[in-house]
Amino acid sequence: MKKRKFKIDFTDAEQNARLRDLEVEKEKFKEDHHGIEQEEVNQAMETLSKATGKDIYIGTKRSPKSKVKFAQFIQDNWDYALENNYFTDEQMLFLLRVQRYMQFKSNCIVDDIHSRSAVPLTQKAIAQRLKTSAPKVSRIVNELVDKGVIVKAQGQKMEGKNARTYALFINPNIIYSGERDNIETTLKALFANSKPLFKKFPVTL
């Protein structure tokens, strides 16, 4: 007795499975958007786009966590710097210790990163914060200036003195206190002259 061969067509089964997946996705969207369906959201977006003449996107209110101050270490560049002895141990330690004073977005070393009226820290003040000597900080800062890692921006003359104050900025290609995709134009301009020094570094912001 010959066995009968059955040919199974999976097309219908696949289509049904896909339909079930779509239904699950729709229900999940409704759950995540307080009962509003995807079609309603799309229609509302299209109406707003026509009314404003601009592309509209959905944004959400920032959570309290978004106010947390943070500094990003550009890992590929640090890896390159360490593999090629770009920093001395002393310079690395200085950068690690001073990053907690980097102002959000500006990368300026300031007295209080949480204050809107923060004041740039002088090298003497940095030395006091780090519990080390001013000459040592001055030497390390000058070394890092030569390497394009720090820029000194000249400030105003101090009252009653001939010397001017300097604000110190850290190169965002090494450490950046802010969003990598939204670096301040002024900060980029400060380090425009240091680009040749970082030509071989893997990441350029």
TrEMBL record:
Q: Give yes or no: UniProt keyword Lipoprotein.
A: no
- Note the superkingdom of the native organism: Bacteria
Keywords (A to Z) from UniProt: Coiled coil
Q: What is a single Pfam family found in this protein's UniProt entry?
A: MarR_2
HTH marR-type domain boundaries: 120-152
Which residues fall in a coiled-coil region? 12-39
Record keyword Coiled coil present: yes
Q: State the protein's name.
A: HTH marR-type domain-containing protein
User: Which source organism does the UniProt entry give?
Assistant: Priestia megaterium
